[in-house]
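Standup notes, structure subgroup. Blocker cleared on the adenosine-5'-triphosphate input:
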Amino acid sequence: MSDSPAPRGEGRAGLHSAVELIGRTAARRWGDVHEQVSYIGALAILVKLTLIWCWRGLLGSQVRFRWNALLDQLVRVGVRAIPIVVLVEVFIGIILALQMAPTLASYGQLEKVADIIAIAIVRELGPLLTAIVLSGFAGASIAAEMGSMVESEEVKALRAHALNPYHFLVVPRFLATVIALVGLSVVADVVGVFGGLLTSVLVLDVSFWGYIDATQAALSLQDYLTGLFKAGVFGVLISMIACHEGLSVRGGAEGVGRATTSTVVKCIVALIGTDAVFTAMFYVWGI
Amino acid sequence: MPGNDVVISIKDMVKEFPTASGTPARVLDGVTLDVQRGETLVIMGGSGCGKSTMLNCLIGEYEISQGRILYQTKEMDKPGDIAQMSEVKLNQVRKRIGILFQSGALFNSMTVAENVALPLQEHSEVDDAVIDVVVTMKLQQVKMLPHRDKMPAQLSGGQKKRAGLARATALDPEILFYDEPSAGLDPVTSAAIDELMMDLSKKLNVTSVVVTHEMDSAFRIADRMVMLEKGRVLSIGPRSQFESIRDAAPESLKTVDERLINQFLNGSSEGPLTDAEGMSEFEKLIGVQ
Ligand SMILES: Nc1ncnc2c1ncn2[C@@H]1O[C@H](COP(=O)(O)OP(=O)(O)OP(=O)(O)O)[C@@H](O)[C@H]1O
Ligand SMILES: [Mg+2]
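Run returned:
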């Protein structure tokens, strides 16, 4: 504060409004934080309920597990996604090989391209890109489907018939997405490495067996397992976000549209955020 | 013997929906009524007065804000408040009730036959052959057998409703709720549905709660009638009471309520229902205090 006394009223008002501004901003930020936290809380509750109903369905005796529904969902989420996952991962293998080649060649280490591709795909890009593809492919369609079920009173009708929507709708989609994502990641790993191999052999003049040997030497079981573990977690995230968005649809066709979009956006943010956390953890623990 | 064989007892039921402005919208404002075993109770009232909301509260879909809803199904030894029940207990009650939704609410990923079969598969121990026979029978009842393998998207509105009715009756419920069963049906099918409803209630002693706007149908099936207005029970009584109000000349009726019911039942455009709103709008327009 300066020596010359500021006009009192005005000074007060200035201070007041500054404090008010900070307060308001804090409140707004806090509101955002609050919203995020309650969203995560709602997801956690959904996960808990889903796991309870998985348990009851698979191991309990009161309810029959709906194998047919699981199979339907596996076909829809997993099998139908194979072509697009293959396509994306082959391209990623090709891109990685071509991007890495000049740098590696300048160190005279061109044969290291196999190692880099193997690690990058198996630990990271296989699961992550498959998950991102599946967010759009399966997440959006699950959200839209569940949303229109809410809107057409199907979910209400289930409950009115004493049938639990978690058991009927969420569990098959949850299990199918997790299983499909782990399975598709294995496919992704193979075709990604294949894409790299193709490029290296045909374009970069790396020897075929040299590439295979280098890949085998570069990868340990841990690399596979961390990759597949992440894929499982991604499957949980995608299915839970999609089911949550779908089940909380309000407001007709427009609401369904909004749920679909926000599913994809939230899935991608959640996937990459979670991936960062896991990668950091694996780095610190050295696995 | 009132109070003795009451299946559903509703006491001071209030249902409020939260609104953006903060003051909740009170859709049901202290509804009190009893449903007797075996009777057909028709609920009437203008569009938006809370009839569907009331059914949703009765099946435990909406949590009510105040009041009690006591059920006394045959297997319960004393009346139970569904607001206080655990999910398991509530589901026990739900297995004894059937509901026909305003839109039919069929499961869109299943055929008509699968829709009807689902409650049986999940809630009864019988094998598939028996379920198939029951499904055939239930679909025959609503004349939907020719459409048994169609998907809901391939059905007309009336067909959806009939399929929904077959599904609602699949488990031979004690209580059936109908939300506008004959809206959108041709007069013959509508009369057939009425016959079916009466059959169910007479032969199997099913208790029916019917929301309807079709006055012919209402007077055909009702044992008792309720008139809702602005979330309250305006009048409740036997069919004969409503018949006499309907047939009276509006001028001869003493209370506003009776004139209002008279107007509603006859569907006339002049009367207290339209006066109240019409006048205030008009007054606003010309600025009269
Ligand atoms: N989920 C909800 N959230 C907020 N308000 C609602 C909700 N459901 C219904 N309402 C409001 O409650 C009132 C009663 O709706 P309801 O669907 O019960 O009417 P209704 O009597 O069945 O009408 P209709 O004869 O047209 O079917 C309406 O004003 C509606 O706007
Ligand atoms: Mg309604």
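Discussed briefly. DSSP finds nine helices and no strands in chain A.
Next: hand off to the docking folks.
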